[in-house]
Each structure stands twice: as C-alpha cells, then as structure tokens.
Design brief:
Elements (H helix, E strand, L loop, with lengths): L4 E3 L8 E3 L9 H11 L4 E12 L8 E7 L2 E2 L11 E10 L9 H12 L12 H10 L1 H8 L3 H4 L15 H6 L3 H10 L9 E10 L2 H7 L5 E8 L2 H19 L14 E2 L3 H36 L8 E6 L1 E8 L2 E8 L1 E3 L12 H4 L2 E4 L7 E6 L9 E3 L8 H7 L2 H10 L3 E4 L19 H10 L3 E14 L1
Parallel strand pairs: 2-3, 17-18
Antiparallel strand pairs: 1-2, 3-4, 4-12, 5-9, 6-8, 6-10, 7-8, 7-18, 11-12, 13-16, 14-15, 15-18
Length: 469
Amino acid sequence: MRSPIEKISQTGGVPIRFFLTSDMLPDAETMAQLEQLAKVPGLEHHVAVLPDIHRKSRNLSPTGTVVATKNAIVPRAVDTGICCGMRMIRTDIEVRDLTPQSGVLDALFGELMRTIPVLEHEQEVISKQEVAEILVHGGRWCRKKFSLSDEELNCIENRATMPTDTEDAEAILASIPEKAISKGRRCFGTLGDGNHFLELQEIVEVLDREAANLLGLFAGKAFFMLHTGSRNLGSKMMKAYLEILERRFAPAQPATNGGALWSMPADSEEGVNYARAVSAASNFGFANRIAITENLRAAVRQVLHDETLALPLLYDCAHVSLQLEPWNGGKLWVHRHGASRALPPSKLAAHPVFSKTGQPVPIPGSMGHASYVGIADERTVETFYSVNHGAGRVMDKPEALAHFTERQVESEMRDKNIRLYRYPARRDDNIAEQAPSSFKDIAQVVRAMIVLSLAKPVVRLRPVAVLKG
C-alpha cells in the first residue's frame, strides 16, 4: 500500500495530499489553484487530491478534489452543477443480441432520444407542486411516483434524500430561488449536454470474481452508465446564490484574476439557507436520474419485446456534492468536486451485499475507451470517503476543440465500432470537446486507485453505443 504524496505550501494552509502516483502530479497552474484552495479559512485536516485531478477554465477549484470543514461552507470548492452524478444499471441481456445489423440499437436509441430530451421538454411534465415535493422529499417522492422498492432505494446515496437541518417544507422551499423551481418543470427527466451521457456497455473482463458474483456482474452482459444531474434547476440555483454571496463574503482583493475562493460560517443565516438549497437541488438530481432510468427500462422492454426484463440498479452516487457527514467520531462538511462518495464495507454493515463488497463506484473512461466498476476500500477514510469520478481530462474543452475536429471524433468512434447517437437538434454542438484523447488513460487512473487502496476494480467494460447531447 502506497502512501499519498503530501505537499505543504510555504505560504500556509492545510496540507495537500495527492492520492495518485508521482507521474500523475498536476501541472503548475493546477498546483497553484490547489494551494489557494488549501488556504481557504475553515478547512480541516487536508485537501484530498484524487487521480482524475484536472483544471477547468470556468472553476477556481480543480475537479477531482475533496475538502472538509467543521463550521464553514466553501461554495466555490464545488461546481455549480450540483448533484451531477453517475448511475449504473445492470442487465441479464447478452450484448451479442444487440447487434447494429439487427436494427436493435437504432430502435433503442431512437426511443431513448424520443422519451429523454437533451435540454428540456417542449411542455411542463410535472407541476410546480411536484417540483416542490421532489425538492423537500427526494427519494420518498420517487418511491411513490415510480413504485421504487427498498432494495432500489438502498442502492442510491442517502436513499436519494440528502440530509438537511430541518424537515420544515416551507423553510426548505424558501431557500430555493423561484426561477430555479420553474426550470424544474421542463428539465425533469432530461439528459443534458456537454459531458453528460447515457452509454450502453459490455462487461468484457471480470477482475474480481467473488465481488462480481455478489454484485450480479457477468461477462458478456449489457450494462448502462448514466451521467447527469440536477440540470438547470441546480445550476440556476447555485449561480444565483454565488452572485449574492460573493458580494457578502468574497475578499475585496481577489487572489486571482478569475476571482477568489472564500468561505462562510455554516451556522450563519446565509450558510444555513445555502446548505438547504444544495440538499434540495441534490434531491432533484437523484430524482432526475431515477426518471431517466424508468424511461430507459421502458425503452429496452419495448424494443426487445420483453416486459419481464428487470434492469436492476447497481448504484447511484453524486460526484458534485456538499453535505454534513460523520467522520472519525465527529461531523464534517464534505465538499466533493468531481469525486464520488465511496463507503467501505465497515460503513455498510446493514446492507446484505455491500457489507461484504463495499459500495460499488463508477469509474467511467471516455466515450471511446473502457470504463470500470469498482468497490470502495477502507482507505477512503483518508479521502473523506471519496474516490475519483472517472478518468479526468488532460485537455480542457477549449483545448480539445483546438486539437480535434468533429469529423475526427466521429471517425474514431466508427473505427472502434462504437455507435455514437446524437440528438438531431444538437448537431451544431461540437462533439470535439469530448474527444476520447482529451481524457486521461483510464488504466493508469485505475492503477493509482489500486496502489493507493482507494478502490478495487471488479469488472472492465467496453463502450458499445453512447448517447450524447
């Protein structure tokens, strides 16, 4: 077991611990951002840096980081896409039965595009009252709406209802901007553009047979990964809060040209309202993935003419989150920016399967490369129970657009025999920003997870077909 690489800035701040191998250390610009993050008032223990660490031009804090506080909230330590996350859905379907020649893939993804819009529905699909109920009750509302079982809810982080300081519906709703609530009526059950996706994969290699058997993962079977979040409701809410809170808490002299990282007391009026809003929007993110899954199940059953197909959920976790969590006998506000919560077996004693395996964690590559399903190891306590959310980028989107063309990406996908499906209305959106070569080598990332004892890979998957915005 390898120890993380620790760096302490000469200008102060908490230590920065890199849970990766020495050949994966980030560039100087990303290091500078990490040093600024480490100096934010209120941080406890250390900044945890994960193997998919990378910088995005729009954010002051790098993706692939986790920080924790006792009584402070750092809004810009997380992305505005709150509850962006991953959902893994297993099947008993043989991939060999889903050949392009049979027309099954075209029929399936055509139905998915028809029932799962990319940005928003043409009309409102849920009422304002239903949006409010989702924001307050999360998984409890979904259980009634979609007849979810306890077994399925237990495969979702926090059973799809994020913790908050109150059960007072009026107090929770008062923290949500009215414009954000209105957005929820049309964006519920939508995929989103950019790096969001719905991917059909094949389990091509079993790496841990005992864990795979317990989790129901077998070679040759079809598997789905879904990546989306709270959509416009969450992003509108976060941006509205940032605009207000930065006037109140941001320093007059920003540390960088792009702004400054800052914190606010978690028990202040602003902190309490912000935390309630984040939890509520997170509930919407989980509900959005649940709704998409119901449409996915319906589409698969319809196209394959088999209403008995189950498509059980393996796990659903956010990778942009902020919540108060137990840690080493106390409670900390854990800020995850491009990091999935990952509980080891010792923290899941009540679950019949995960108590033996640990929580399943998605490790997606790019749309042109392999992905993995892993299980959380006990050492995640050192990363505040977190693992990286995927491969991570080697090029930001503007860099990828400068290096690749849409035609190159489409040609690469064809050469690899991967079907790329795109919404007709989004054909003007340049897919080059998602070029497979703009992402890190997923095998290298997984190796780092193994040697740092963050997670154990269970199966390797290859992409068969991917739906992108």
